Amino acid sequence: MDIFGFLKKKSGSKDTAKDRLKLILMHDRGDVSPELLENIKNDILDVLRKYVEVDPDQELDLQVTQTDTEYGSVPALVANIPIRKKR
After folding, report:
1. Which long-range contacts (CB under 8 A, 24 or more apart) does 37-41 make?
2. 30 or 36: which carries more pLDDT confidence?
């Protein structure tokens, strides 16, 4: 039980717009077009479906973010893929 849950703001249209803007900025910084990101997503799903059953009812989340490494700040692909079971 979250005893401080009442302090959290509910997500409104302002928060949704802010999240969408962040996503757009991440795509721009990663120099990845939405079309390329969609192609990457489809390719990843094709490979994963050979080994696991992906839950079609859950939303797949794929983002390009910036990660600090020993080589400096580089784009990183982050995927949240709902898996039902192994094949």
Report:
1. 37/62, 37/64, 40/77
2. 36
